[in-house]
Amino acid sequence: MSKDGIAVEIRDVYKSFGGGRYQVFKGLNLVVPKGDVTFVLGPSGVGKSVMLKHILGLLQPDSGEVLIFGEHIPYKDSRGLNEMRKHFGMLFQYAALFDDMTVFQNVSFPLVEHRKGLTREEMRRIVAEKLEAVGLQPETSMDKFPSELSGGMKKRVGLARAIVLEPEILLYDEPTTGLDPVTRAMVDDLIVDTNKRFGLTSIVISHDIPSALYSANHIAFLFDGQIVFWGTPDQFRKTDHPMAREFLDAEERHRKEMHA
User: Fold this and answer.
1) What is the reported pTM?
2) pLDDT digit string, tens, across residues 146-180
3) Domain range annotation of the chain
């Protein structure tokens, strides 16, 4: 793969906490192709969220490199770091909407922070466009509060906020956790459709194997401080790595029990 085709690259990253007592990454390597949906799977506690924080420059490796579109993260340059983060949008696990703000106020929050020259009318137009893009009707949703929204609507609003600044890379943190099957399928479709519609690169942190097999172009499996598998969903189905295999077999047993 050419460097021009890479959105995010993690090279031989080591990271530990507690004075070196807890080693999270032991030579972590990952390539995220530009334009694709890449799922990162793995057991709880292996460092998937820590990896996201490294990609965003919120944590710095003990050694190794993280590159965004071929550029090193400027950890010691606060202005450069803020500029780099404009490449990213983020959909948090439970949408993380502000409860005391309307849908319009939630989605326009990044515009208020980063596009200070916009008028309110211009912001409402941009917010309406993004709400429509994620399948919501602006005229019926814009003035509602999060308490008036279903779980699926909250995810859509959170996604509209994540794309309102038109980032190049979208990060998802466990987007289907706690959702019913119908809403989970809606979120799966939303990830794929949004990635295609806006020409994005998406990185999804998840435990959800069915979602990964459905939505991903590539799957990375994180275990014991390293990416131990990287490939297509079809290749993942056939993996012989013991922990990845255990994940897949457990999901298959669960599916059979649900349909017994």
Assistant:
1) 0.89
2) 999 988 888 889 999 999 999 999 999 988 887 78
3) 3-258
